[in-house]
Design goal:
It is a single chain. About 40% of the residues lie in helices and about 25% in strands. It is built from 12 helices and 10 strands. The strands form 2 sheets. The chain has a 7-stranded mixed β-sheet, sandwiched between helices. Helix 4 (about 45-55) links the parallel strand 1 and strand 2 (about 55-60). Helix 1 runs antiparallel to helix 11 (about 195-205) and helix 8 packs across helix 12. The chain is globular and about 55 Å long.
C-alpha cells in the first residue's frame, strides 16, 4: 500500500498527458467490437472510455475511490478493487478476452501477483497489453526528491511508492506465469509537463510528503525544482520529465 492520494481535478490539469500518451497501448491490444475487456488501473477512465467507444464491453478497476468516481461520471462500469487480487474479485464474473493497463503497474508492489491475477481472469487465447514506467523512469526527478528527503532525515525508500521493472525482469514474470511475450520494449519518452514540475509533484509526490505541513511541502517542491532545473528545464521548452516506459503485449496460449 502507498500513501498516494489522488485528486482528479489536479490530475486532469497536470497529468492529462498520461492518457493521451497511452493510446499506443490500445493500438497494441487491438480491441474488437464485442470483446470483454478489463482495464486494470483505469484512473479517471479516459482510456476506458476509448475502449467502450470501440464497441467493447469494459470493466475498469482502480484502487482510488476518487478516480473511480471521476470515471463513473463518464458513464463507465468501474469499481474500486485491488489489482493484486483479481482472481477473487472476478471469480464469479466470467473470463475476459483481453486485459489492458496503462501507467498503473509500477504503483503495484507485488507485480507477480498482478500478472497471476491477469492470467486467471483471461480466457485461453486472451491478450494482455500494458504500459508502465520502466527502469530509469524520472531518474533525475527521483534524485531531487531523494536528496530533499535525506536532508530532512527521512528514509526515501520507505516513502517510495514505485517499482520500475526492466525488460528482462518483466519478461520473466510474464513467461514464468505461462504467457507468450509477443512484444516488449523499453521506450525513452521525454514528456513535456503542461503545468510544470510543480504541478507534477503536486499530483505524484503525496507519498513522499505525507505528514508535511503546507510550508514544508512548498519547500520540498522548491528544492526538487532547483535540483532538476539544469537538466529538465529550458526557457524554450519549459519543463520536461525524463520518462521511460515499458510496453508489452503478452498472449495466454489456447488450451
Amino acid at each position: 500500500m502507498t500513501n498516494q492520494v489522488w485528486n482528479p481535478e489536479n490530475y486532469k490539469k497536470s497529468a492529462n498527458f498520461v492518457a493521451a500518451l497511452g493510446m499506443p497501448v490500445i493500438e497494441l491490444l487491438d480491441p474488437k467490437p464485442g470483446e470483454r475487456v478489463l482495464d486494470v488501473g483505469c484512473g479517471d477512465g479516459v482510456l476506458t472510455k476509448a475502449l467502450v467507444d470501440r464497441g467493447c464491453e469494459v470493466i475498469g478497476i482502480d484502487s482510488s475511490e476518487e478516480m473511480v468516481a471521476s470515471a463513473r461520471s463518464l458513464g463507465l462500469n468501474v469499481r474500486v478493487a485491488d489489482a493484486h487480487k483479481l482472481e477473487a474479485e472476478f471469480a464469479q464474473a466470467g473470463k475476459f478476452d483481453a486485459v489492458m493497463s496503462n501507467a498503473a503497474i509500477h504503483w503495484m508492489g507485488d507485480q507477480y501477483a498482478v500478472v497471476r491475477g491477469v492470467w486467471d481472469v483471461l480466457r485461453p487465447g486472451g491478450r494482455f497489453a500494458a504500459e508502465c514506467a520502466g527502469e530509469g523512469n524520472v531518474r533525475i526527478i527521483r534524485e531531487g526528491m531523494k536528496i530533499s528527503l535525506i536532508n530532512r532525515g527521512i528514509d526515501y525508500k520507505a516513502r517510495n511508492p514505485w517499482k520500475y521493472p526492466d525488460v528482462g525482469m518483466f519478461s520473466n514474470i510474464l513467461e514464468n506465469q505461462g504467457f507468450r511475450v509477443s512484444y516488449i520494449a523499453r521506450i525513452d519518452r521525454p514528456t513535456k509537463l503542461p503545468n510544470g514540475l510543480r504541478g507534477w509533484l503536486e499530483v505524484f509526490s503525496n507519498s513522499h510528503t505525507r505528514d508535511f505541513s503546507d510550508d514544508e511541502r512548498i519547500h520540498f517542491y522548491e528544492e526538487v525544482e532547483n535540483y532538476c532545473r539544469p537538466k529538465l528545464y529550458s526557457d524554450e521548452k519549459g519543463w520536461t520529465a525524463d520518462y521511460v516506459r515499458l510496453r508489452f503485449l503478452a498472449l495466454k496460449p489456447k488450451e
